[in-house]
Amino acid sequence: MTETAWIRHGDERLPRYTSYPTAPHFGPAVTAADYGEWLAAVPAAAAASLYLHVPFCRAMCWYCGCHTTVARRDGPIADYLAALRAEIALVADRLGRRLAVRHVHLGGGTPTILAPDDFRGLIGLLRARFDVSPAAEIAVEIDPRTLTAEMVAALAAAGVTRASVGVQSFDPAVQRAVNRVQGVEQTAAAVAALRAAGVAGINVDLIYGLPHQTVASCVETLRRCAEMRPDRFSVFGYAHVPGFKKHQRRIDEAALPDAAARRAQADAIADAALAAGYVRVGLDHFALPGDALARALADGTLRRNFQGYTTDPCDTLIGLGASAIGRLPQGYVQNEVVIGDYARRVSRGEPATARGYRLTADDRLRAEAIERLMCDLQVDMAELCARHGTTPAALATALPRLRALAAEGIVRLDGSRVSMAAEARLLVRTAAAAFDAHLAVPGRSFSRAV
């Protein structure tokens, strides 16, 4: 693979493929009434996952790509919590039973912005309205800068099993440039407190491609985090889309690393993680060898959803909260993004669904092709088509792009099997895009492939 090909493909703007089709293809044709019917039709034997979105932070990190807002007072948070509790009750009523739940994830924003008693009460409500398995993973995203001892105790009392700790970078110049100043000691203290309280699973989130970031600072951040021995790392490339996230305009574009520098940073972080004893999982995750994520990679059961790589096997994901996305057998649904619109819909006793997408048989085939390639770095197209009851011709539209990528040394084609070249692993989204029949969206800007 030539350096020219690497830079050209690394600069491509592509989806992260945490779903297929991706969210820009959702539309108003899927309504709240459709979602209500889909909920009522969830099979009796099905198990599900829950995602709860808490769209508030105490300060805005300028790199953030999430649907969140700054709340300096607690009143809006309390009002939102009331709407979220009402939506939980509404969804549970539409299901008509205590649906079995195997995984719960609270994201944002900063879920731990809730008062400790409110957090415990929220998890208690989930347990009352759903059949949450005693073995369920309950994961929460954490900002160490605002984590209190009282909240740590509440997380433990609520049965939280995993914490995703945001770090991004320990480089002071980078932190100042993105409005997130966070010390190593502060982070280590949060990790130690969580573990002491019984929250045993620890993820650390890092970002490369930030303003003023260097290979050396990326490696040093990984090294300092590895001393805390988290079970997993998530390492994302910064997506600079100021047209969609206006606060990103505060970032000096001239200070952002170019494609070659981003590649060097990603490679350096990967090398440092491997040297520290972690296993590389898919595109951008790393796990200790005994971790469930590494085991899922080894046995071929690794999955990918809106939270990234996961061991969650459930095909039903119920999204709760403003902007939350759910997936049911029939397709995707997304709630109203604006908090006020979300709360008004729920107050009227109706699902807050604003848009969605109804899956076709072709979508399901291509979704699995993309997921397997993203997870396993390979996929057998003929075997996949046979399992979906169709012929390899169903994926014939992917072949021109795959052959072109093979000619550049990015993928290897062996009969019907597509696999990533080892040196091109970071370009797996480029290969996955070959299966994307919906890729072109006028006016939509995705993140760089690397």
List the helices and strands and how they pair.
Layout (H helix, E strand, L loop, with lengths): L2 H8 L2 E2 L17 H9 L6 E8 L1 E2 L11 E2 L4 H21 L4 E9 L7 H14 L1 E12 L6 H9 L4 E7 L3 H7 L5 H14 L3 E8 L6 H12 L5 E6 L21 H17 L3 E3 L3 E3 L4 H8 L3 E3 L2 E3 L5 E5 L4 E4 L2 E5 L3 H9 L5 E6 L2 H16 L1 E3 H7 L11 H9 L3 E4 L2 E4 L7 H5 L14 E2 L2
Parallel strand pairs: 2-5, 2-14, 3-4, 5-6, 6-7, 7-8, 8-9
Antiparallel strand pairs: 1-21, 9-11, 10-11, 12-13, 15-16, 16-17, 18-20, 19-20
Helix pairs in contact: 3-4, 3-11, 4-5, 8-9
Question: What are the salient characteristics of this protein?
Answer:
450 residues, alpha/beta, Arc Repressor Mutant, subunit A, 2 domains, three-stranded antiparallel sheet
Write up this protein.
This protein has 450 residues and is of the alpha/beta class. The protein has two domains: 1-22 and 361-450, Arc Repressor Mutant, subunit A (Orthogonal Bundle), CATH 1.10.10.920; 23-320, tm_1862 like domain (pyruvate-formate lyase- activating enzyme, Alpha-Beta Horseshoe). It is 37% helix and 22% strand. The protein is built from 15 helices and 21 strands. Strands 10-11-9-8-7-6-5-2-14 form a nine-stranded mixed β-sheet, sandwiched between helices. The protein has a three-stranded antiparallel β-sheet with strand order 15-16-17, with helices on one face. A hairpin with a 2-residue loop joins strand 15 and strand 16 (331-335). The mean pLDDT is 93.
Largest sheet: 9 strands, mixed
CATH topology (fold) name of the largest domain: pyruvate-formate lyase- activating enzyme
Question: What is the domain total for the residues?
Answer: 2
Q: Given this structure, which CATH class of the largest domain is correct?
A: Alpha Beta
Any idea what the shape is?
globular
Sheet-strand content, in percent, reads 15-25%
Q: Give the count of helical stretches.
A: 15
Residue runs with pLDDT of under 50 for 5 or more positions: none
User: Taking all residues together, what is the mean pLDDT?
Assistant: 93
Estimated helix fraction: 25-40%
Structure class: alpha/beta
The total of beta strands comes to 21
Major sheet strand order: 10-11-9-8-7-6-5-2-14
Rg over CA atoms: 21 Å
